[in-house]
What does this fold into?
Amino acid sequence: MLEIKNLHVDLEDEEKTILKGVDLSVEAGKVHAIMGPNGSGKSTLSYVLAGRDGYEVTEGSATLDGVDILDMEPEERAAAGLFLAFQYPVEIPGVGNMTFMRTAVNAQRKAKGLDEMSATDFLKMVREKAATLKMDNEMLKRPVNVGFSGGEKKRNEILQMAVLEPKMCILDETDSGLDVDAMKLVAEGVNALRNEGRGFLVITHYQRLLDHIKPDVVHIMSEGRIVKTGGPELALQVEREGYEDIKAEVA
Amino acid sequence: MALPQAKLDATEARLAVAARPSGAAWADAARDGALARLRAQGLPHRRDEYWKFTNPDTLVQPEAPEAATFDETDAPIFDAVERLKIVFVDGVFDAGASDDLALEGVTIERLSEAAQSDIHWAKELYGVLEERGQDPVARPLAALNTALADDGVLIHVTGKASKPINLIYHHQSPRSDAMLHHVVKLDPGAEVTLLENGPAAARFNAVMEVEVADGAAFHHVRAQGRDHERRTATHLFARLGEESTFKTFTLTANGVLTRNECVVEMKGDDAAAHIAGACVGDGDFHHDDTVFVTHDAVNCESRQVFKKVLRNGARGVFQGKILVKPDAQKTDGYQISQSLLLDGDSEFDAKPELEIYADDVACSHGSTSGAIDEEGLFYLRARGVPKDIATDLLTLAFLAEAVDEIENEDLRAELVNLLEGWLGRRRG
It folds into this structure.
């Protein structure tokens, strides 16, 4: 589903190379995890895939279902089925959460040649999905992420994922800033979305999120490359030994 | 001080092409007084300090520059609101298109007729609030209006008006040069909402004087629409009594030149004045909000909230002043002017001023101009919202603080709809 080949990325403003040849393939129905120390390039990878400004791809490719996404605008990538759950969801004062989600859903439907969803159908759909994430009407009415706690922001990300039904979900440090209960709630939300047609790429520093979202494949990223790939046991090895040992092992 | 010859010449050239209306003694006296004021001040010049950011040449020159008439294909504004309509076409009252000037709790007359009556309540206000507003800063275009305007409406509100009054302006002649002078007098405890909208003329000079007596409430909502080539100078003068309320909001889109001045004098204790505006400017657009609030009573609150979204070289100006006189203790004055510059070609000039002579007051002011929030824009786009729609969402969000100053929910919804429509049309 998501194919990343030999991806090299520089920061635009500084002469600094962050990704130095990433190869990764996520199949439909699978959950891949990327673990790695701070500064290894994990978040950069997620931003580059989502289309954020400030990065320059100098080599390599990324395709979603065989279609090159790197030349697309961010909204085109979203319409193609890519979703990034942000590590730091952005607060947008003055834009209501519901208005925002409805605009996003209808924009994506339009991009696919579908009619807009009626306000009532939309409201019903969102309320059902919000309930499973324990989000009340108040949270839906408030401006996007404004005044939300860390946990509420992450739940709001998962809600958007559930509402938009993307085929490839990237979760960037979704566990950061969450206590155990909030993490469980978020993980349940993610697990409910797992199905045969959907791929997941879960980026995390710690193993603990992977206790709740069980990965099929675990990659270790270091200094802009995937240095090791294995099964779920690899995450446990990281937890036991730390990144330094693994880096030493593959060096 | 003698005026520079160029100013004298410009003023006389302007007056030479104008016909001074004649009326009863009180109206003649008011017009004579205004003419004398104008001749002492001279019409504005671009080197005048008060016109530093806005070139008044086309507002001053004898003939109105041509402006294409605007095809009013938009759904009429305020149509969903039950209201009394008063229509002017190129500054001329249109009786056929207007409702009967009859409304419970209100008497409405045309200036052109009332000015012929020997005795009229407007004598106490016509040109009077305008004259009070000339100090300490001259507003010659308002004096010109008092001297030359031959029509407008005189509204006397004696109770709670049963519905809003809507002044609707149409522009039909490409060179029309319209001047209207309205006077609104609210008796103690009276309430009225006044709506204004529509392209008025190629060039439009409007003055409104509003006397808000003790405990009365005046609400004003104005939409200056998409008639792009208009040149407009408006003055809104208000005097507020005890525990009175004055709220005015203006939404502006397009317009090569718009200058809205609002001059408020808080004369009674415990009064509140809210002056707000939101504008979206694109390309050859110049919008100037000039506000002067004088606190001359105890425990009054004033708010100035102005937001501008500018792009493609559009220019926005805000000159706002709060003057607190020595006895105006417990004054609560607030002023914010902000602009969102969607590109590097646009410009916002702000001149916020506080002048405070009382010692127990809370006054604050702030002015910012900034670019669109790139993080927010990316977040919206990453969810599939196209860039132009995302920009409009952020634009609406930015303007919301000003639009929220409109107290009435239905009117607020009308203006938000209008704004969304304007933005949507621009997107194509």
